[in-house]
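Q: Sequence in, structure out?
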Amino acid sequence: MSAVAKEVSAAMRRKAPKAASSWPRALPSLDSKFNFKDTVPNVDAAHFQPLGTWSSEKLNQSRAENPFLMTWVPGSARHKVPNMTHGEGVYLFDDQGKQYLDWTSQAVCANLGHDVPESVVESAAYQMRTLPFTYGGIGITEVRTRMNQLMAEVLPGNLRAAVYPSSGAEANEAGIMMARRFTGKKKVISWYRSYHGATGAAGAATGDMRRWYGSDDNPGFIKAFNPFPLFFKHGGNGATEEENVQAALAMLEEQILNEGPDNIASIMMESIVGAGGCLVMPEGYMQGVRALCDEYVILMHVDEVMVGFGRTGQMFGFQHYDGVMPDIVSAAKGISGAAIPMSMTAVNEEIMEFFEDKAIGWGSTYQAHPVAMAVAYENVKYLLQNNIVGRCQKLAPLFEACMQKLANDHPSIKQFRSIGMFGCFDIHDPNGVNPKLQHEAAHAAFAKYKEAYNENGLVGLHRYPHIHCAPPLVISEEELIDGFQRLDRALSVLDEALGYDEESRGAPYERPTSYIPRIDLALPPTCFY
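A: Exactly. Output:
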């Protein structure tokens, strides 16, 4: 280009409009809103009365004037929930003095009932007086070190406690993150009949309808059928249990191959499915899943949130399956007996070593909270010192015999399952049909059943068409039989409401006589090893 051309070109560029010029724009103005910064709160003087002194009238008035929301039911459901005032052993009492036997240990978590051991109270009080909180990355308390050593001694094999979150969902979040970071892979396979929590990744791993509220939008989570689909058998009609197991494992392997083994970080499952119906995996299935994980270099993540710490007659549910050792275990509920929010994520030594020089990528302000650690520490020691796991084993035959008696006497019961002190009835209508699919509203018969359930002095969790039985592990034989008698009367209402005729219903409940205690409560507290 000549010198003249260059000069002309430069002159034209100087005259060109500037592309970075802004456009005039008026911002929206704030509508006048009063934020009450100079207003003194009008606080009810009744707040400064001791706890336990508000009357029923005062409680109900406050609930009416200051609404709060529920979780898995509409907010208005709170109007039918009683005001509970105190607990004694396996019982709760409302503000009218009515006694309720806690038939599901609340959400299968109040495993020691509603009398917190004095050692737990004292330990919590000691920690609150000396150091109620220190952030996990700033200070380590004595109780954290003690609890970690106790978990290393209680956890089987090479499992080690890694972190101590506040809930089962958080424990699963940590486990999922560690699996992804350790493997460098993203996908997680879990079952349709499952529940793992309501937070982001845990909600996406969940298989039941609770993931429909928004968790399905999270990528990287694949659903598979476990050996208990509702409407078919993996091996076809007439298949043996072994054939069904082999077909279910073949289906899982094909899904692994289609998703790409190099893309799958973990297979995540409850060792014994909880809310989905107390599903105990058939012989050989969990061993087959472990073998598939080994074959395709996938981590096995077992969710023990509901059944860990003794519910099933073993310290952990996966210990019912010979030879099965998971890579990741998440636990909660029973670790503190629900006296305080507390959970744990444990991993094998190889994963622990991997994170020695890198962050796990998960955290929480209240991880390893000192007061929560103190409560859990004393709770687990109480389990050991009082042989609660062995006690569960001893009561299991009576528990199963009672469930069998009700299954025989009530036509609405299709079948049942039980293990340790955890059981579930499946309900069907007179046509053999499932009366409550996940996308359907509950059958009107269940409302009548729930009313009879409460009238007969039972309180608990309801996940229709399943009826769970999971009383506190400290329940006595007489209390257990009393609970089944109360349930028997409620089930009679359900039989009638579903349309079963009177002739098909059994005789009034009587104590089963054919059971043999499995162990003596006098055995030493380490008998579960």
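The two ends are 90 Å apart (CA to CA).
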